[in-house]
Specification:
134 residues; mainly alpha; globular
Length: 134
Amino acid sequence: MNTDFFGELRDKYLQTDFGKGVFLAGVAIGTLAKAQLGDSTEKKIEDAPLFKQINFGKMTLKELKRHIARIPELTKAYRIDYSGMIESLASESGKLILSSGSKELGVDGNFAFTVAFMNSGEYFWGKIFKKKEE
């Protein structure tokens, strides 16, 4: 798992452990939501059951923790081949959130989560779990 890309991001919120945790949660949950769609190219992310459960822009820390806590259950239910990768990312996210001591997401947290969710494929496959070139 590579999180060096945080050094490229200029947002001060994403330089904190809490911000990184929220962002990684968005990537993990977004990747899981896309996996819920299966191989269908006709379905949109809006069709994913997980997408419909997220209160974008108004999510609380309690709701985010609830979504993260459900990841092992959902990866098992949807039989996702790369479930271990999603779960390890969610685990890292949870550690960062818990170690920060922050109490609420606020505007910055909701924004970071949404950006990560909507760009989860790029971050999950393109940066975090990108295979190193030989």
